[in-house]
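Before relying on records like the one below, remember that each one covers exactly one chain. Contacts with other chains, cofactors or solvent are not represented anywhere in the record.
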Amino acid sequence: MQNKTPLWTPSDSRRKNSALTRFARFAEAKTGQTFPDYPSLHQWSVTESEDFWSLAASFLGIRWVTRPERAHLPPPAGRMLGAQWFPKATLSYAANMLSDLSDPSIKIISIIEGRDQPIEWSGAEIYRAVARCAAGLSRAGVTSGTRVAGVLPNTAEAIIAMLASNALGAIWSSCSPDFGQEGILDRF
């Protein structure tokens, strides 16, 4: 017989202030339904998946380039395999990641081998670095659909280059120099 005692239970305060609870209150306000607990919210997400995913995208603040026709097109027989999510929608990962950079808090802490101190990047610093990188890529001829590959370690600069490429509509791929020449060539 398995022990069914939870390993951890959040405090009432933590539960009331969680993102899941905020989403449940948001969904209640939008639908007029009530979701007093997780099972009721989960059941609604299963039986009304179109409404659930539509409201989830709204709650999360997804910024669409092209709005979806709807949230979910289930496949025949109501199975998940083969479902279409947000059909005909397009979005920019960069636009979504860089949407609220007025917050001066640290967004990236980059720890680099051989350096004594981590490098901290605020949202505004990331935004400026992405803009500079995107301008440089644009001057180099990078446009929507261009493939951009970077050989660099997993640092803030890699994230900045990815966001700058994505902001231009380019396709980004990266690989760490640790892979070695053959590994890098195989990867790309």
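Helices lie at 12-16, 19-31, 38-47, 49-59, 93-97, 123-139, 156-167, 180-187.
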